[in-house]
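Sequence and fold
=================
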Amino acid sequence: MIHMMIVDDEPIAVNYLLETLQELEHLDLELSKAYSGYEALEKLGDRKVDILLTDIRMPGMTGMELADQILKRWPRCKAIFLTGYDDFAYAQSAIRKGGVDYVLKTEGDEAIVRAIEKAIADIRLEINEEHILQKAKQQIHLALPSLRREYLVEFLQNEVDSLANRKKRFANLAIDLDPELPIMTAVGRIDEWGAFALPSEKPLLFYSIHNIAEEYLSSSVRFVAIQYDRSRFIWFIQPKDGEDWTTTTHRLGDSAELVQSACKRLLKVPISLAFEAEPCPWEHVSERVETLKLQLGLGIGRGKEMLITGQQTDPAQGEHRSSRIFFAENDMRSKVRKLDLLETYMDNGEKEPFTQLFMELFQIDEMLLSGSEGKFLAMELFSHLSAFFLSYLNRRRLFAQLGASIDPEPLLELSKHASWHEAIRYFRELGETLADFNGRKQVERTNDIIGRIHHYIHEFLHEDLSLTKLSQLVYLSSPYLSRLYKQMTGKGILDYITEVRINKAKLLLKTGDRKINEIATEIGLESAHYFTRLFKKVTGYTPLEYRDSAKAMDETNR
C-alpha cells in the first residue's frame, strides 16, 4: 500500500483533505497527517513515505525544507506542493526539488486528486517488474564472477544441465567455453598459505593465482578458473579455434609448471596441480574432478608442489568403481546438499510439499547401499539426516516443546532401525510431525495477533488507530499486517475499524442524547461532518435520522 502524508499548518485543511481522500477507494492509499514540518518528521521516524502532499508556506519549516529532509531519506518520494500564491518562482523551485506537481489551493479538489493519481502512476511504474529486471540487467555484470563460480561449482557437484540450458547459461554468464565440445580440467591446491594466512587475505591469494595462470594460459588456450573451496581451485580448458587437443595438452603441461614456479617466486606460496591428459564430455566433468581431487589427496613425495598428469592409482583403493556407482554416489551427495530446502516447508507448516520433496530427494539406489562399502555410505547418509534434524530441533528449541513425542534414540542411531527403508520413513514422519506442529503454532500466533488488535481497537476506539500504530503494537510491518489480517478474516483491517465505530455510534445514538460531534469524538473521528457522511454511507441514514428511527422503533416495541 502506498503511504501518503498530508502536511499543512491549517488543521481544517488537513482534516478536510484526509476525509476527502479516504472516500476515494480507487487511490488505495494509507494516509497520515501532520500540522507542521517538524511534526511530520517526528511522526515518520524511520518509516518510509511515498507521497508528500504539503503546503509550501508554513511557519517554522516550509514545505520546501520539509521536502528536502524527506528526499534525503527517501529519494523516491514524490512531493506535491500546495500553495495559495500564484507564484511561478515557487513552481520552478518545486520542480527542481523533484516535485511531481505544483497545485494552487484555489484549483480545487480535482486538481489535487489528479496530481496524486499521477504520483501513484509514477510510483507503480518505478516498481514495475520490467523496470526492476532492466535495472538488474544493467548491474548484473558486477556480479558475473560470483554467478559464474556458483554455476560451475553446482555443475561440479553433479547438478548437470541439459545441453540447451548449458548453452543458455554459458551465454548469460559470459563463460568463454564451448558447451558442446569436450573439456579438460585441472585441480589445484594451495599447499601453504605463507603471508596470506589471515581470512581476509585468502581471496587475494586466489585472485593472484588466477591472474598468474591467465598470464601463462589465456594466450594459447580457452581458459576459465574458479575457486572451488577453501584451498582448491579448478581450471577449465579447451583448445583455441583451429587448435587440436594434442597441442593443447602439451601447452597445459608446460604452462602448469611455469604457474607453479611463478606462485612460489612471486607469492611465496607452493601449489600442487593435477590434470588428466585427455578431455572428457561435460557430463563427465564431475567424475573427472573427483578423480583429480583424489590424486592430490593421495600425496606423492612430500605431498607439496605436486604436478600430476594422468591417473595415479593407489593400490589400497583397489579397482576403480564403476561409472554407475560413481554417479549414484554423487547424486546422493547432491541431494544431501539440498536438505536445507526442507526447512522452509517445515517452518511454514506445509506438510504435503515437505513430504513430496523429501521423497524426491531420498529415493536412493538400493545397489548403492548394499555390500561392505554400501554399509558405510548408508552411515554417511544417515549421519547427514540425523545432523540436519537434530540441528533443526535444537535451533528452534523444539525438544522441550514436543516433549515425549520425539524419541532421540532413532534420531541418533542407525542400529535402531530394522532397515534403511525404515530409517527413511522415520525421518519423513519426523519432518511431517514438525510441519504439523509449526502449522498449528502459526495459526495460534496469528489468532493471538488478531485478538490483540481487536481488543486494542475496542479499548481505544477514540485514539489513533492508524495501520502504523496497530502494526507497531504487534511488531509487524504495516503492509504485512494488512495482508495477514485480510487473509485470516476476509476483510480489511480499516473496514473492521469502521464497522466497530459504526456499531458503537449506533449504540450511543440509541441510548442517549449526546450531540453528534461528541459521538464523533468518542468513536475516534475528528469532525461531525465526516462522521455524518461515513455513517450515511454505511447505514443509509444520517445519525439524526437513525436516532429518530431507533426511538420510534423503541416506542413501537413498548
In short: The first helix runs from residue 11 to 22.
